[in-house]
Amino acid sequence: MTQQIRTTLLTGFCDLVNRLHHNPETLLTSSGINPHQVSRQAGYLPLSSVTTLLQKTAQQLDCADFGLRLAHSQGVAALSFLSPAVLQSLTLAEFLKVTVDLLGKPPHSLRLALQNKDDGACFSFLCLEDLQGLTPVGTPSAPEQCREFLMGVCLVAMQTLCGDHFHLEAVHLKTRQPLHGRYKDYFKAPVHFGSDSDRFVLNSNTLLLPIEKCSTDLRALFKAHIDDLLQQGETDLLGQVEQLIDYLMPLKRCSLQEVANQLGLHKRTLQRRLRNRGLVFEDVLDRIRRERAQYYLSGKQPPMSQISNMLGYREQSSFNRACARWFKTTPMRVRRRLLADAAARAVATE
């Protein structure tokens, strides 16, 4: 099994190495990586090659925190191969679950796990145990550099999705000794060394954070992914419309005209094709909004203002009126009722 990662995860490598006064092409070539492939951000790279690259770079540049530096230069590139996970998810917990499944399959074959605890969860990087066998004897820091890089990329992805609301409770590393003194600068959380696994600890409220799909940084990412889906033609018309609603709703651009534009159709043509299937666009949008609202209201978070934004409403009062129509009561009362029902079910199963 050859584990692979997307070349886009080396975004910023050349710029960072140049700023540290070294030749990036020399480092790439000596690690078995084609510099042209990196410049084009094309395809996949063997994880073993990336592991070697990070070790060589950290040593030759005398930069012990290079793995984390590179990870934190990624920005939205950290999510470039996880667009399906973002589009399918409403909360951080859902995103992590889809990510575990997505990255566990070829060509990535990376072993990750999300384990629920009493007061939160652990997101474990089991794939990092495989790094020990990827590098030659005598290069002990190679797995550690790649370990910090991959965990850093995951952190940047979650920060990009959840914004300022996101934070870690703690970070556990199997590395026995710190490589540098900047862990708290990057992770903003207590870091424990010599642990039994590499993992992030998150609390329950953090897991319930909504994915901020209205982020400007994510728009181009979503658009490219949806364009790919539409070109592949693997999704029927209703599926395409639903995907576009998920994308456009948080941007407050979810109209029949905008969806038709994305599909390359005239508005009347889209109306007719939906009508031939017994569908009306406004009904599809309303159903999706109601489903999303009920899901969000089933937990203590997120706050009402965030739910309203995620559903594409410009005013909180519009969301309140929609809840009155859907559920015959206010959003707050819906949340209380759903939480009470969940508590009663939990007691009944004990």
UniProtKB/TrEMBL annotation:
InterPro entries: AraC-type_N (IPR032687), Homeodomain-like_sf (IPR009057), HTH_AraC (IPR018060). The keyword Chaperone does not apply. Pfam families: Arabinose_bd, HTH_18. Residues 239-337 form the HTH araC/xylS-type domain. The keyword Methyltransferase does not apply. This is AraC family transcriptional regulator. Keywords: DNA-binding, Transcription, Transcription regulation. SMART domains: HTH_ARAC. It comes from Microbulbifer spongiae.
